[in-house]
Records
---
Amino acid sequence: MTHSRSPSPVFSDPGLKDAMDAPSSPAYEPPPCGQPATTPGKRKATSDNPGASDNEDNDLELSDETGSSAVQSSPLVASNSSTTPSLKQLGRHLAKRSKLRPDQLQEVDSFAMAATKAERDVQLLVHILSVKNMLEKIVVEQPKFEVTKYLDDNIKRIALGVLLSTNIASYTGPDTMTPVEEHLKRDRFGMPPNIERNTADWKKVIQKIQYHQMQIRAHFKRLIEASVEDKDPAQHDTVFVLTKAMAAGACDITIGLCARVALMRHVYMNGKPDKDFWPKVNERLASMRKSAKGNKKKGMVHYLTKDCEAHGIMSADEDCDNVVQTKFQQEIDDALEN
């Protein structure tokens, strides 16, 4: 009796048998022209997972590649033994080019051989403080500044030139101080460099300017008072004589300067001489500038004419119509005109 062979246990699972009997996957064939090829290993967007696109896979691959290259390209921390020689060589090169002394060259080597940046910072701080101490010692050892006679004489000369200028806006305050300061800063007259930055020393110069201008103004006022002492106007000094006494040879006598002096004498004669004389002169000048309308000389001619009528006409030898001002005074006038 013939017995039939029992089925193999391998195929006892119907599902497994169906899977085994299923045809094999077809071999890969290139897509028709115009259709993109599908790269193995990348997911395609499906209806179940539309976000899983090739772009996301590309991003993932790029980030992996970037991270890998970043790790590979990041430099290793150089040891002190590899970096110190190059720093030392650079230090020696710069030291020789700067012509440092041998002992200073050793300090450069020590600085370059420092193991850490913190050590170099400490050395640098010590050197900075050392330089600071040396500078302070130099400043302390400098001789105390005093206004010399040469400087004092020039301050007085410039101060007088400013108060004799026909372009001065007022006879007190910054209008008289600043031009003298600028002239001193330009020509120096033996002043130490940068003295104007030293508040204490520059104050001594300022005090000299103030002193001389105060003395000059007082002298001008005394001369005006003396010019009209006589009760007889015929005995008064003419404006030319009065102006010449004020200038004292510091500049030439011009019509413009005589007109300025005439204005001063007018204020003196028509006010209280002992009170607010110079402020009143300043007010009169400001009023004239305001009403001049481009003709500054018109008001001055008015006061000059009135002065000649009240105190005497200038003689023929006192003519100053065509006088050319001195170079020094002209420089001051030009500076005040700007």
---
Amino acid sequence: MVLRFNDKGLHALADYTRMWMNYTIGEMSIDSYSHKIHKGIAAGDLNLQNISVSRFYPPLIRYRSSEYSLYMTTLGGQVELQAEWELESAFLSLFTFPFRGEVLGRIAGLQSEISVQINPSTNEFSIHHCTARFHDFRIRLSGSMAADILHWFRTILGKAMKRKVEETYCKMISEKLLPWLQYQITKFPGYLEINFGENIKLSQSLHSIAMTNSHIDLRMKNKFVTNGHLIETLSTLPSSIPNNGEVFFSASTCHFHPLPPPLSP
């Protein structure tokens, strides 16, 4: 059996990825961050900690395949962030009011492209490149008079935070999405098990993955258990596409093994 992902299959995978992303990014935290302000009365170190996602709207996702890579592109979406800030400034430390508070951020217009390469000998997935850009990033600080002063620098601070979130996004793709995507594709054949009566059972496991500019083929290793014997076959890739077909049955290599007798109680 060969399982083919064409445009419809990749579209369904994209919808499934949006569901996964909605859950995962909603639970994601971002590493603490320190930004250096070099000029002005607020010159010093601005520290951000306890950065978390308060609300997330997943972007539109599209998968497309090529002979060498699987591409995932995103467009749109929105993230709302919250964090705690603290300013360490030599000049402002002369005053008595506190230099800490809360920062709220809103990110919109995510545009990204991730290229995933698949090792044909091991079926291992790896990130070839990841680019991410948010076109709209807005922040608001609150908590003290220092927050009003920092609003003078919100453009510089916003750009710095934007770069940090873009880096975190690609890190999340590499550390969380990639293992999930590999598991979904490579383990899917294991769910295909067919019983033909009491004495014949067909089960599948992944042998290899073949990619083209229009589809992805999962080539199966088939196992038939019949009358106490195991027959293993290896599916061949079709030379043409059947009418509206996405699952192909064929075999080129066959191995016959008698099953060992059951253990005595």
---
Amino acid sequence: MRIIAIPLARARAGVTPVSTFLAQKTPIKPSFTSHKLAEAEKTKSKASSSSIKDAAKPSEEAKEPLSKRIMSKASAFWVDLGREDQKSTFDWKRRTYTLGEKLMDQIEYEEWALKGVDPSIGPTLTHPKSAQKDNATESSAESSGQPIASRSTPKNVSLLFPPSLLSGNTLLSSLTKMTASRQPHHRQRMIWCILGMPLTIPFIVIPVIPNLPFFYLVWRAWSHWRAFQSSKYLSDLIQQGRLIPTPSEDLDQILSKPPSPEERPPASTAITEEKPQDGQQPQVSKIELDSLMILQPFHIKRLSESFKMDRQLSVDLHRARQQTIKAIKSGRLGKLEAAAKDGAGHDKKA
């Protein structure tokens, strides 16, 4: 597993930007041997290859944890609700999908980022008590002259970041603060969702339409539980020194290279300046907004192609960007200013 830090915006030039992060499985580079094996597989007959695939499907599905299989079916069901050719009484399926997407866009991007950290694809962490027990066993074996079993080298997680915009120490400090504040937040919200589930029982009497409030609370409880577990895992990674900041020149190049003519957004989709209401001037002009924002839509496309991101990671980046724009327009620059103060003591490039 690797984690990629993406800067979103900054309060002013030369200060630390506020950023988000994405977690993904580290891609395995194909070796010469694996390439030859793949070529040999292609030479097999079509019938035998299809039969092998059909026989392998049940075993692959059986390897997946039950929670992942349930979430896969739930995701497929949710996508099916949004189909344009889907017909239902009072059009409740399409309306539910549209409302659900709007609600998901309102969820803080920090929660989406934490949910993306999957401990099952990351390295196994050593519990402090087990580490002390191993050290005591080695000490007793060494004192008695017995051979000491060799330990396997622990695997680390790379924290990729653009060195011209972010620094490793600042990122680790920011992630430490975020995980410390997020753990009690998600734990409390998860409990609230669980306690609220029985209150949705009266909605069962509504015909045709399922108990949507109940399923929403179930999903939110699971979401908070996932973010809570991922936050604990990420915090342990940092405490054990297993999260290694790694400068990435690829990220620097992606974020610094100006857009090509094909990447420039049409005038209709560009960030527009909000009209003043009741004689008031907008808090942030379009020029100021463009100067504050770092992550642009063409950056997301480049990142998706270069780092082979799946659709969910791209959606998470778009959500983080839109929420940052909304915060800037509404004058809520607290995160940007806090990021600038946290990084004031570090040597950074503008």
---
Amino acid sequence: MRVQFNSQVNFLNATGDENMSSEERFRCASSRRTFLKMAGAGAGATGLFTGMPLVAAQSDYPDLARARTQHESAGIVPPERTYRMMEWEFHTPPEEHFNINFAAATRAAKDAGAESMMFYSQDHWGYAHYPSDVAVRHPHLDRDVFGTEVSLARQLGMSVVCYYSLQFNNQCVLSHPDWGWVNEQGEQQRDRWYMTCLDSPYRSYVVGMIGEIFSRYEVDELFLDIFGIQFVLYHAEG
């Protein structure tokens, strides 16, 4: 496993050693279909790349069946059974700060009738909202924003969905151009934010983050946003 350091992030360059070409590294990775199945399985996603160190041991993950039983006993409404979910949209550019009273905001959401909350673990800019050891942290992340949100929602008896921006990621594409989606002329594609390509080592980066999230936080579901965005652009152009 090769680890490249860029600012405060450890970029995981898929499988293989540093002398492997991008094509060879890609061949070591699994198919997109397998990736989506594993990502949808939540904590089990870290087993997708056998050559990649796991973020946490299997025993470090919460017992899902036990958690669901406890939530049901406590009257917590799961995300798929409510129309009262509130999403906090946090696509936060690098110059912004997290000057928010999270406790007051979460209480206001609860008082407004929210039964489930959707919090951002990674935004379109490619910034993690928690102290990740795998991903690029937001430059003004002065606390565990995602962890704080999850904890406060749990204290108020609300279920939690983890939002993850899958294919918009400026940080990864700017640092690893070979991870980006390109057109026939080899030009990086973007729709305000740069698009990543899942047929690249970027997949192992994603799986590393998912492993962190499910081993550290008590979340009910994972929402993968911006999947297949490149096809929308190509079809729009005919």
